[in-house]
């Protein structure tokens, strides 16, 4: 099925900061307990603890969870968690990371530099998993560059989430799962209703490792229940 998103293309998905915002970010990292703990535990970023908490609550990495795509991969902390949790449960997973910026993947995983809004990226993901089978789990910790204007950042996040949902719709097998970050706002319910068309269980969660002042949250979607057309999903 050709990729024809019903939304404008996001120009950038990465989260680089500059100037004053960079200085604030560095200062915050220096006192952040999760950032400090990530260095001790060997994780590439504090984001690992968000996924660890979600797995504890929802058991994302079961014995049948083998094929995983990690969107917004860099710097690779979520893939590290996925590798560790899968192996602890006796599974040797196939994990493919996707990001706009190049990043060296952790040992035991692979990486493709690409944009999920491009059909060529979808083709590359499909080619990687074709001999391995359909996806069992889609992870997305992606977020657009924030402008500081709440509504604009929210709408940009919703468009990005729609792109992730389209990928999951096309590549995730029945009973598969999706974990997706989003920036909260007035269209949360619209996105949740779309997710509920596809998944049997949809949970809206803010892990304790999320900074309280940020409007980021996660949808944890379990048990993909049926095939839904793009037209039906966005009607």
TrEMBL record:
Keywords linked to the UniProt accession: Methyltransferase, rRNA processing, S-adenosyl-L-methionine, Transferase
SUPFAM superfamilies per record: S-adenosyl-L-methionine-dependent methyltransferases
Database matches in InterPro entries: RNA_methyltr_RlmE, RNA_MeTrfase_FtsJ_dom, rRNA-MeTfrase_E, SAM-dependent_MTases_sf
Ribosomal RNA methyltransferase FtsJ domain sequence ranges: 43-224
GO molecular function term, any single one: rRNA (uridine-2'-O-)-methyltransferase activity
Any one cellular-component term (Gene Ontology): mitochondrion
Annotated Pfam families: FtsJ (PF01728)
Active site: 181 (proton acceptor)
HAMAP family assigned: RNA_methyltr_E
Family statement drawn from the similarity comment of this UniProt entry: Belongs to the class I-like SAM-binding methyltransferase superfamily. RNA methyltransferase RlmE family.
The protein's name: rRNA methyltransferase 2, mitochondrial
Lineage: Eukaryota, Fungi, Dikarya, Ascomycota, Saccharomycotina
